[in-house]
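Async update (no meeting this week)

Hi team, since we skipped the sync, here's where things stand on the single-chain job. The sequence we agreed to prioritize is pasted below, unchanged from the tracker. I ran it this morning and attached the output directly underneath so nobody has to dig for it. Comments welcome in thread, and please keep replies under the output.
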Amino acid sequence: MDPVIDAALRTALSLLFVAAAAHKLRDLGQFRATLAEYHLLPPRLVPFGAVAVVALELTLAATLLAPPLRRSSLVAAAAVLSIYGGAMGVNLARGRRHIDCGCAGPAARRPISGWLVARNATVAAAALAGLIPASPRPFSWVDGITVAGATVTLAALYASLDRMLALAPARARLRGVA
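Output:
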């Protein structure tokens, strides 16, 4: 893999985890309530779990940018995204479609859905694709600009797709499908 693709992927994933942690930190009490709503942790562990999730996301955001921690951070990122998708999948299987995914922050409640599970699986797969060894070549200033541009593009693409997913239920109601 070209080192520019590697750097862009890790930078975009880092940005994703920073944004996720920021959403949760905006109203940690609401995130705690969302986490409790999943019914996956004993109630007494939910406050600790909420803080641990935010700490884990911030840790991943930092370690994804550290080349010596590249492989372990990519595996951890894929694992965390898979756990999030699994938590949604468990609740979907329980018929609990009404609960908030917890991924858009306190200002934008979004019910869990199969699309969100698929989104997490796709991003986890992208993290695992980052395990392909980066080819050794010098990193130039043009590469830095390319990484910045690619990161902005990936963030915009993710935000656009995420917004489309968020609006899907409303579009379905307007068409009379749901």
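Quick observations from my side:
The chain is about 70% helix and 0% strand.
The chain has one domain: 3-175.
Reply here if anything looks off.
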